[in-house]
Amino acid sequence: MSFHRYIDHTNLQPTSGPEDILKLCEEAITYNFYAVCVNSCYVYLAAEKLSGSNVKIAATVGFPLGAASTQSKVTEAKRAVKDGADEIDMVINIGFLKADLHKNVKEDIEAVKKAIGKKTLKVILETCYLNEEEKKIGCMIAEKAGADFVKTSTGFGTGGATLEDVKLMRATVSEKVRVKASGGISSTEEALKYIELGADRIGTSRGVLLMKDTNL
User: Fold this and answer.
1) What values do phi and psi take at 34, rounded to 5?
2) Domain locations along the chain
3) Sign of the four-CA dihedral 76, 102, 138, 120
4) Which residue(s) pair with 150 in the sheet?
5) What is the pTM (predicted TM-score) of this model?
6) What are 69-78's pLDDT values in tens digits?
7) Considering the domain 3-212, what is its CATH architecture?
8) 84-95: burial string, b at 16+ Cβ within 10 Å, e else
9) Catalytic residue among 49, 56, 135, 180
10) 180 catalytic, yes or no?
11) Contacts of 153 (CB under 8 A, 6+ apart)
């Protein structure tokens, strides 16, 4: 697969307005990125702009803390799909995971997956807050709950993706589950290292810079 098709071109900044999202979509069309990733309130706008293109729309849910109620995550996910989202990037309940409330974590993910049906579900672990065992458990729970992807980071925590985390996540989940590296990826060289380690998708707000930095 060509490098540009690994990229989820992302703008999740709280200060971003409609014009910023339209620009994001224009860039995604120009470079034929796999998807744009936006906050759920802008899915409708992205859907209008991307109509007729092959660029997918990923919407965040329970973002960036993961601490919203399951019902609110379900409602947000359903609305995003109704507005045109192809994929949902939900944040795992980090506090529940760290408190060993594994049943609650699984039920939270299952509820969102059930709500979106065959749409792609990515579960964000926010690895900067987890120890190695918690990362493994989070991955295993996400897979059992029906996630299509496990994802490293929101980009709003104390740290982003690391090569070690992507390697660990790829080794923990089965081949049925894919891995998205996201958070602080700022160069083509770095992105390619993640892909070599098994990342199936790269989440970055620097997609255009990465494309200008490569002949791939």
Assistant:
1) -65, -45
2) 3-212
3) negative
4) 123, 179
5) 0.97
6) 999 999 999 9
7) Alpha-Beta Barrel (3.20)
8) bbbbbbbbbbbe
9) 180
10) yes
11) 124, 125, 126, 127, 128, 159, 160, 161, 182, 183, 184
Task: Considering the candidates 56, 86, 151, 165, report the single residue annotated as catalytic.
Answer: 151
Instruction: Choose the catalytic residue: 8, 83, 86, 89.
Output: 89
- Is 89 in the active site? yes
Find, among 183, 57, 174, 64, the residue nearest to 116 by Cα. 57
Calculate mean pLDDT across residues 143-161: 98
3-state secondary structure of 60: strand
Q: For the chain, what percent of residues have pLDDT higher than 90?
A: 97
Query: Mean pLDDT, the chain, as a whole number?
Result: 97
Can 82 be counted among the known catalytic residues?
A: no
Distance CA 216, CA 213 (A): 9
Percent of the chain with pLDDT over 70: 99
Query: Mean pLDDT throughout 145-165?
Result: 98
